[in-house]
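Anyone up for a design puzzle?
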């Protein structure tokens, strides 16, 4: 099921609020905030240029937006007012990620660098220049001790918030790394590339733990909170949920268009996506939520046979002979 959210400027990026109650979407020149429970449009925030990266601060008070010109803007999520604007980069901002404590913001760019900024005043804290090509992926570990970034040459580098390189790994040479995510316990790093490779690394030593074919180019990926699952999304118009231990496929969520961005709610109960058709969608992942949504959208009561077959309610009507 989806809610079919489609703001006027399109929705090509999604981010969930820390409490899971609100979804932010970013498009051509605006951010839109949505009520997850009802699908109601809460606020539109105008942007001067096209958004290319979006992240929501852990405290829920700030949204970070990176644009196609290399600028980063921190926005008050409640008022839509600009808080500060770090000096940023000389090329498109590919990804943004707040530190777990919300004090720092990391960014990566087409200019080949990664940077860390103070959220309070926008002052640059570190600049990492270990990549030799455009940087396209970024993740921050849950313990705040490591970051990982990936580039268009298929290289992944693990580094510290001080800008010190720790490990360097390579996926298929020449394939663009577009998705990175640390496991909740920070012991694994999931990576996905434009060739459709899904790989798990040990970030402590850089060793490849497991790899698999995701069925098509991966544009984004994330660990599902509270579970041992990884979600991937990309060109094949499917979100795929994988067992994070052995990368076996668990389920697929088809879409009508390529999927650019995905975000889980903090409890892992819902998944939001943004696709090439400009729409954002919210998928309930728990059975009880799916049944509740089905009940809301059902135009007639179930027959006795349907109820018995699909267990739609506890007390099914008695079949009439």
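Challenge accepted. My sequence:
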């Amino acid at each position: 099921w989806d809610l079919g959210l489609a703001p006027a400027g399109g929705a090509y990026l999604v981010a969930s609020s820390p409490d899971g109650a609100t979804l932010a979407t970013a498009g051509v020149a605006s951010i839109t905030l949505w009520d997850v429970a009802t699908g109601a449009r809460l606020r539109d925030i105008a942007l001067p240029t096209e958004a290319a990266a979006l992240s929501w601060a852990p405290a829920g008070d700030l949204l970070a937006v990176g644009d196609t010109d290399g600028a980063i803007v921190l926005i008050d999520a409640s008022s839509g007012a600009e808080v500060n604007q770090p000096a940023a980069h000389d090329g498109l901002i590919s990804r943004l990620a707040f530190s777990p404590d919300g004090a720092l913001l990391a960014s990566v760019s087409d200019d080949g660098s990664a940077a860390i900024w103070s959220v309070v005043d926008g002052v640059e804290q570190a600049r990492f220049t270990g990549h030799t090509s455009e940087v396209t992926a970024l993740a921050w570990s849950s313990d705040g001790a490591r970051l990982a970034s990936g580039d268009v040459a298929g290289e992944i580098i693990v580094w510290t918030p001080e800008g010190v390189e720790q490990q360097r790994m390579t996926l298929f040479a020449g394939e663009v790394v577009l998705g990175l995510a640390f496991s909740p316990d920070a012991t694994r790093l999931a990576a996905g590339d434009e060739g459709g490779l899904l790989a798990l690394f040990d970030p402590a030593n850089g060793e490849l733990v497991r790899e698999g074919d995701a069925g098509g180019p991966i544009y984004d990926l994330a660990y599902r909170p509270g579970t041992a699952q990884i979600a991937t999304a990309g060109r094949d118009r499917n979100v795929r949920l994988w067992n994070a231990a052995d990368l076996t496929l668990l389920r697929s969520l088809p879409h009508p268009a390529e999927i650019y961005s995905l975000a889980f709610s903090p409890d892992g109960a819902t998944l939001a996506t943004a696709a090439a058709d400009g729409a954002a969608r919210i998928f309930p992942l728990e059975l009880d939520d799916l049944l509740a949504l089905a009940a809301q959208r059902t135009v007639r009561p179930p027959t006795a046979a349907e109820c018995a077959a699909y267990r739609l309610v506890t007390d099914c009507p008695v079949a009439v002979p």
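A detail worth pointing out: The CA atoms of residues 269 and 286 lie 6 Å apart.
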